[in-house]
Every structure is written in C-alpha cells, then in structure tokens.
C-alpha cells in the first residue's frame, strides 16, 4: 500500500509540474510581429537587422 501512495505521489507531482509548464509557457512565447506599412522603411529595417523580409499584399476585386 505504501508503494501505491509513493507512485501516486510521483504521478501527482509530474502532472502538477506539467500543468504548470503548460500554463506558464505562453509567457515565454515569441513576441508579436511588428508590421511596417511602408515598403521603404521595412526594407531599411530588414537590411539593418540582417533579416529576410516578408511582403504581404492582397486585393479585393
């Protein structure tokens, strides 16, 4: 009976730690993308940072 109590104790601890990790993980998520409205400004910032650029455009016909 004592071994069952120990096993449930470790299971409860594991589940508690897992739930805590799931709850806290959004706090460490990547920051949001900051979209530029000007192509020229966006290209300058991407060049300064040495990062690739994503151009998103659409139309309503």
Number of strands: 0
**Helix fraction bin:** 55-70%
Mean pLDDT: 83
Helix and strand pattern: HH
Largest sheet: none
Please tell me how large the radius of gyration is: 24 Å
How does this structure look, described?
With 61 residues, the protein is an all-alpha fold. Helix content is 56%, strand content 0%. It has a domain at 1-25. It contains two helices and no strands. The N and C termini lie far apart (72 Å).
Offer a few descriptive terms.
61 residues, mainly alpha, 0% strand
SSE blueprint and pairings:
Elements: H1 2-24, H2 39-49
Short description:
The chain is mainly α.
């Amino acid at each position: 009976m004592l071994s069952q109590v120990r096993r449930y104790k470790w299971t409860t601890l594991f589940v508690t730690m897992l739930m805590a990790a799931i709850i806290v993980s959004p706090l460490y998520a990547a920051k949001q993308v900051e979209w530029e409205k000007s192509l020229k400004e966006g290209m300058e910032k991407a060049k300064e940072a040495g990062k690739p650029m994503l151009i998103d455009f659409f139309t309503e016909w």
